[in-house]
Amino acid sequence: MPFPGSAPPGPSGSSGTSVPPGPARPPAGPGERAAGRTGLVLAVLSAVLLWLVAAAWSPLLSFDRSVARALHRRAVREPDLVQVNRILTDWVWDPWTMRLLIAAAVLWLWFRRERLLSVYTTAAVLLAWAIQQSLKAGVGRKRPQWPDPVDSAHFAAFPSGHAMVAAVVCVLLLWLLRRHGLRGRAWAAAVTAAAVSVVGVGLTRLYLGVHWPTDVLAGWLMGTGWALLAVAAYPWVEERVRSRTPGSSNAVGGGAGPAG
């Protein structure tokens, strides 16, 4: 039985003049197609949320204010928990921590001679950052203001940079781990760690009173959606590169199978 991406066997008794095989990598598999569909759904939801926030839809703003006030009142009464959340948001799940993780993965791919995958992952992260910064500047939403703040943050609020960076990085890291054979309990542990990180960093930003709930929701939707669309697009990019640079399979793809 041929491995995914290998040329199918020729008919019995054929001469050695068969047509040369095409690119080793097959078109997008079921996992990548599902990632694309999910990414499109999340992109649509992100666009709807962006429109509602930009239009200052009063029911949504009222919801934001009520949740933010309730969480802030609790945070003021719990200084020890505030300190725990500060450590989590400023060190464990800080955007620079996430960027260092994906940078380590990119370097690892590069030294394994999976150059296209390394460059593609870097480009996906950089484009996500550009989208995030453009939206912050374009929407210009102010952060919650409190007479007795427990933490502070700068720049515009929408979308949450912490939540979006965590979503992009964690989804891409899971994709890379899956491509390179992570399965079983190790895979379950990786998925759990990623989910806890993405959800956890958003909750810390809300608890510390530096974001509205819809800022965090937008970061989750946009970051996850963008990363899934990047996953779905990679087979097409890889096939195009292979077709233009024959004989360079190590540099472009590395030999890992399709995402599961």
UniProtKB/TrEMBL annotation:
User: Which keywords are on file for this protein?
Assistant: Membrane, Transmembrane, Transmembrane helix
Question: Where in the sequence does UniProt note compositional bias of the Pro residues kind?
Answer: 1-11, 20-29
Please tell me whether the keyword Transmembrane helix is annotated for this protein: yes
Domain annotation Phosphatidic acid phosphatase type 2/haloperoxidase: ranges:
118-231
Which segments cross the bilayer?
Answer: 40-60, 117-135, 155-177, 189-210, 216-237
User: Is Ribosomal protein among the key words of this record?
Assistant: no
List the InterPro entries.
PAP2/HPO, PAP2/HPO_sf
Which Gene3D superfamilies would you find in this protein's record? Phosphatidic acid phosphatase type 2/haloperoxidase
Q: Where is this region: Disordered?
A: 1-32
Protein's name according to its UniProt entry: PAP2 family protein
